[in-house]
Amino acid sequence: MNEFLEPTPVIDSASAAIIAAAAEIAGDAVSDEEIARRCFLWVRDCVRHSSDHAIPVVTCTASDVLRHRAGFCYAKSHLLTALLRARGIPAALCYQRLSRDSSGSAFCLHGLVAVQLLRHGWYRIDPRGNKGEITTDFCPPTERLAYTPRLPGEMDIARRFADALPCVVATLQKWPTAEEVSRNLPDYASDA
After folding, report:
1. Which of 44, 115, 132, 192 is the residue whose CA sits 20 to 30 A from 145?
2. What is the chain's alpha carbon radius of gyration, rounded to the nearest angstrom?
3. Three-state SS letters, 94-149
4. Which of 147, 127, 148 is nearest to 137 (CA)?
5. Can you tell me the distance from the alpha carbon of 108 to that of 86, in angstroms, rounded to the nearest whole number?
6. What pLDDT score does 43 carry?
């Protein structure tokens, strides 16, 4: 469980800015479930999704996401994971492999978070942000994720990761604009 509490270069949960933000967001909450709920809602609602809001900046580390208040699903997940770890709550990164269109001809990863809650065990949450028919929520033990794999080739990737996948980090570091990232989203098969 320690690996899901430790900072990494991407999940920089020991940075002063992350620690301060986590304390402010958690406020007077005491239970792990309430702290996780507040952190989830804050990232979902206060950090804008780069594509949804046409924000050109590309963020990767949790502290960069916090500073710019913007990021792709991966980056928003990095920040949520860091905030939870900063409050002593085990958190991991999770991924789904999803089709980029309705034909299943091309795939990409979608990033989300699993949090270890005392009453429920590992519980997946999706800080992507709501948009139209895409809605997420925090209501354990029921998962309310943005996407459900349905097409052949789509899947929930079963593992929980202590740090971001190398293909995700490479994508976020290689492409200088959100538009370029959107055209070059990583796929799990390319990371296997």
Report:
1. 192
2. 15
3. EEEEEECCCCCCCEEEEEEEEEEECCCEEEEECCCCCECCECCEEECCEEECCCCC
4. 127
5. 29
6. 98
Residue 126 Cα distances to 36, 63, 158, 175, 192, angstroms: 12, 19, 15, 24, 23
Position 12 pLDDT exceeds 90: yes
34: its two tokens? 């309430």
Listed in sequence order, the DSSP H helices in 5-72 are: 16-26, 32-46, 62-68
CA atoms of 50 and 57, how far apart (whole Å): 7
- When the pLDDT of each residue in the chain is averaged and rounded to a whole number, the result is 95
pLDDT band at 19 (very low <50, low <70, confident <90, very high): very high
Q: Taking Cα atoms as reference points, which of 75, 82, 22 lies closest to residue 48?
A: 75
One-letter amino acid at 52 equals D
The number of residues making up the chain comes to 192
Name every residue whose Cβ is closer than 8 Å to that of residue 52 and which is 6 or more positions away in sequence.
Answer: 129, 131
What are the b/e assignments for 45-67, b being 16+ CB within 10 Å? eebbbbbeeebebbbbbbbbbbe
**pTM recorded for the entire structure:** 0.96
Share of the chain above pLDDT 70, in %: 98
